[in-house]
Amino acid sequence: SYHSGQDIDVDAGTPVYVPWKDLSTDIKEDKTGEGLRALAVVPIRVRGEIVACLNVSSHVFDIVPRWARAALEDIAGRIGSAIVRARAEELQRLAEKERKTLEERYHHAQKMEAVGRLAGGVAHDLNNMLTPILAYTELLESAFEPDDTRLQPIREVRAAGRDLLQQHRQF
After folding, report:
1. Three-state secondary structure call for residue 42
2. Which long-range contacts (CB under 8 A, 24 or more apart) does 50-54 make?
3. C-alpha span between 124 and 144 (Å, rounded)
4. Dmax of the chain from CA atoms?
5. Residue 89 predicted with pLDDT over 90
6. Contact at 8 Å (CB) between 89 and 77?
7. 154 closest CA partner among 128, 129, 126, 135
8. What would the mean pLDDT of 44-66 be, rounded to a whole number?
9. Tens digits of per-residue pLDDT, 121-136?
């Protein structure tokens, strides 16, 4: 459609094809001296929404020929389709990245759970081994007189066992 003497407004969603002589004066004054003869403004749509415009000026034609209009509208449609594809690919890439991040977190949580179970099992086993050692050292200690020199190694084993048990409980 031609917009003689009017501002170019593609908000309606239709392409605008204007001979240069019919443009409003403020637009003409901006481009005076460039030798422009016609202007085409074709909206680029993405899912029905205008996201940009394809602006083409002609130095050759006084009006934009029908074949050029068809080509410009086709190009604008292809640009819109390319934008849709690019956005879809970006969303796909982001979703894949998020999936990988969640998968890594899940595997990390599984490893931490396994380490926790292993540590719990080791702690249980250590406790099971230290308890009889401490009990036997107490029993053995009671079999000797308090000033018997043979008690020294028994007391060292008992002290080491208590220290180990204390460290184990703190852990």
Report:
1. strand
2. 50/10, 50/11, 50/13, 51/80, 51/83, 52/79, 53/10, 54/79
3. 31
4. 123
5. yes
6. no
7. 135
8. 86
9. 888 888 888 889 899 9
